[in-house]
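Appendix B. One record, verbatim.
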Amino acid sequence: MFRRRRERDGTEAFRAVLAEVETAKEAAVSAVPDRRGRARPLADALFEFEQELRAAWSLLPSWTGDEAHRAGCAAGLEESLRRAEALRLEARELTYESLVAQLAELIDPLEPFEAAANELLRA
């Protein structure tokens, strides 16, 4: 009985971290122009992306249990933050294609969250 409660708490903590990561990914993608050419400024999107990832990082210690998934997700957060900083400091003009490629590279390290979600949140 106590073990189930602890697992449920670990799952809820993971859900909180995952929510921040998903919000970060949405922020990054908001820099891609829509059909009408409207897009959020890249600097604003990167700022929110980094803030949301830092929020996820701050919640990471509350996620107990599956150390393998937790370690992979932590490494992904660190790498995405490193890539975001590099992109922000580079501050070069990007075409649509290069912007999409850069944002994909920014989000790629967060893939361990998808694997963790598939395993930890399946019903």
